[in-house]
Specification:
By secondary structure, the chain is of the alpha/beta class. It is 33% helix and 19% strand. The strands form two sheets. It has a nine-stranded mixed sheet with strand order 5-4-1-8-9-10-11-12-13, with helices on both faces. Helix 1 crosses helix 8. GO terms for molecular function: ATP binding; kinase activity.
Length: 338
C-alpha cells in the first residue's frame, strides 16, 4: 500500500440513546469522531495506518481523542495538542428533522489549523513510504471539507493542496460541507475554497446534499458527477445512501475513463453515523494501491465494491470511528457474497 496522508478535524460525537427527537432523548454517549479522523482510523483498521495531521484541545476530551488515535495505531507525529477546548458534535436521532450534526463549543482548537505548520516533509517524499524499488514515493493525500469553514483551516488546506500538487501527490477531497459552521459574512469565501479544492483535486467524493450546501451544483447522481468533473478533477464519486455509490472518471484518471455504479449491500442498519467515512476509507484503501503499480481497468469498480462493503459493515453498530471494520472483516463479508 502506498503511503497515505490524511488531514482534518478530530472531535467528539455525542451519540443519542433511544428517542425520536432531541427532546425525547434521555442521554448521550461520547464517541471519537470527525470525518478525516474516521477515515484515518478506517484506513488503519484496513491495514494501512496513514500519517494524520490533526489538532485536539488540551481539555479532557482532547486527551481522550489523542489516546484513541494512538490506540488505533495512528502515529502521533502530526497529532497536535493545542490550547483550547475540543469541538463537540451532537448527533441527531435517525429520522429527526434538521441537520444530522450540530456543533457546539469553540472551533479554534479543532479547526484552526496553522498554514505555517503544514507538515510538508510528509508530502514531499522526505517522510513518505518507500516504494518497492527503495525510493520514496509521494503519498496519497486525503482532505475533508469541514476545515474549509474556518479561515485558518481554509488557508492550511489550500497550502496542503498546493504542496501536494507540486510534489506529485494524488489528492482526494471529501466535500462534506457544513454550512452551519460558516458565519454569513464568510459563506462566499468558504464556498469559493470548496470550489477551488474540488478543481485542484484528482478524486472528489460527495453526496448531493454536500454539493448543494456548498453551492456547487443542484444535480443528482451521474449528472452531479459530471458537473464536478467539469470543474477539474479526473474522478467524481457520488454516494447514494441505501442505493450504493457511483463514479465517473475521465481520460486523465489513472484507471482511464469509466462510468460505474454499485448498488451497495443490504444489511440491518443500527447507526449510519460515519458510514460515508467508512466508504471513503474502503475506497481509498483500494485506489491508493501499491507504489508505482498501474491500476487495472476495473480498479474504480473494485474500489466502489470495497467502499460499499466497508460502509455496510460500519452501520451494523453504533458510532462512527468505533464501527470501522477490519480488513479481515471486509474480506470475509465480500467472500460471503461472491
Amino acid at each position: 500500500m502506498a503511503g497515505i496522508f490524511v488531514a482534518g478535524e478530530t472531535l467528539v460525537d455525542f451519540v443519542p440513546e433511544a428517542g425520536e427527537t432531541l427532546r425525547e432523548v434521555d442521554g448521550y454517549a461520547h464517541r471519537p469522531g470527525g470525518a478525516p479522523a474516521n477515515v484515518a482510523v478506517g484506513l488503519a483498521r484496513l491495514g494501512s495506518p496513514p500519517a494524520f495531521w490533526t489538532r485536539v484541545g488540551d481539555d479532557a476530551f482532547g486527551a481522550f481523542l489523542a489516546e484513541t488515535l494512538a490506540d488505533e495505531g495512528i502515529p502521533d507525529t502530526h497529532v497536535e495538542r493545542v490550547e483550547g477546548k475540543t469541538t463537540l458534535a451532537l448527533v441527531s436521532p435517525p429520522g429527526a428533522d434538521g441537520p444530522r450534526f450540530s456543533f457546539y463549543g469553540p472551533r479554534e482548537a479543532t479547526f484552526g489549523f496553522d498554514p505555517d505548520a503544514v507538515p510538508t516533509e510528509a508530502l514531499t517524499g522526505d517522510d513518505a513510504a518507500p516504494s518497492p524499488g527503495g525510493t520514496s514515493a509521494p503519498p496519497w493525500v486525503h482532505l475533508g471539507g469541514v476545515a474549509l469553514t474556518h479561515p485558518r483551516g481554509r488557508a492550511a488546506t489550500r497550502e496542503i493542496v498546493a504542496t501536494a500538487t507540486a510534489a506529485g501527490c494524488p489528492v482526494s477531497f471529501d466535500v462534506n460541507y457544513r454550512p452551519d459552521l460558516v458565519p454569513d459574512d464568510a459563506a462566499e469565501a468558504a464556498s469559493t475554497a470548496v470550489r477551488e479544492t474540488v478543481a485542484e483535486s484528482g478524486v472528489v467524493l460527495c453526496s448531493d446534499e454536500d454539493v448543494a450546501a456548498a453551492g456547487l451544483s443542484t444535480s443528482e447522481g451521474e449528472e452531479l458527477a459530471r458537473d464536478l468533473l467539469a470543474l477539474g478533477p479526473h474522478t467524481a464519486v457520488v454516494t447514494l445512501g441505501d442505493d450504493g455509490a457511483l463514479a465517473v472518471s475521465t481520460d486523465d484518471a489513472p484507471w482511464g475513463p469509466a462510468t460505474v455504479r454499485h448498488e451497495g449491500f443490504a444489511v440491518e442498519a443500527v447507526d449510519a453515523t460515519g458510514a460515508g467515512d467508512a466508504f471513503t476509507a474502503g475506497l481509498l484503501s483500494r485506489l491508493a494501491g501499491e507504489p508505482g503499480a498501474a491500476p487495472g481497468e476495473n480498479a474504480l469498480r473494485e474500489a466502489l465494491v470495497v467502499g460499499n462493503a466497508t460502509a455496510a459493515l460500519s452501520i451494523r453498530s453504533v458510532g462512527g470511528m468505533g464501527s470501522m471494520p477490519s480488513r479481515e472483516g471486509v474480506e470475509a463479508f465480500l467472500a460471503e457474497r461472491e
